[in-house]
Amino acid sequence: MNPGPAAFAIPLTLWLSVLLPAATGRGQTLPAPLLNAPLPGARPASAPPPPPHAAPASAPRPFTLADFKAQVPVSPEGHFLLTVPQICHTTGDPQVREILAGRTVRTLAQVPPAPAADSRPPRLRVSRQLLHCCASHARTYSLALDFGTLTPPANPGPWAHITGRIRYQREGLELVPVLEVSAFEEAAAPPQPILN
Question: Considering 13, 49, 88, 183, which has the largest number of Cβ atoms within 10 A of its Cβ?
Fold first, then answer.
């Protein structure tokens, strides 16, 4: 059984009294100034404590719509162009959620041949894969579409451009994005179906 770290907590003075005399010769001791010398960078016991860390000059600047627009492409119509994984990742950032909620986005996604088990009319789920390191580690992200009063496509093609407003809702313990569809157009498969 290995002893824990506390078993090796031997005071420095004991180490010095045992090891240093052996190193200098039997029976000889080191001069007192050397034994009592402070460690480099140590402050004397009589010195006042250092000041507490100064608070930052100002609080961090909040993330704004202008910051988001500087990072994300926007269509000529003013819709944010986001991938399905990017939309799904927005749930993890409260500031981004606040910016995107109610705004219109456009995405390109795969449409499953049959509705998912949890996709009740007028809902449909679309997805897109994101490569993490190699094809065997591609992760599928899915996004719920809410058609509201629109009629969902009966037999959509395998790919579609979807435009709609983002809202966030709780499903069980998770917060998920839902796209309220305003336009659903079949599209050709992209040259790179799996994102990286």
Answer: 88
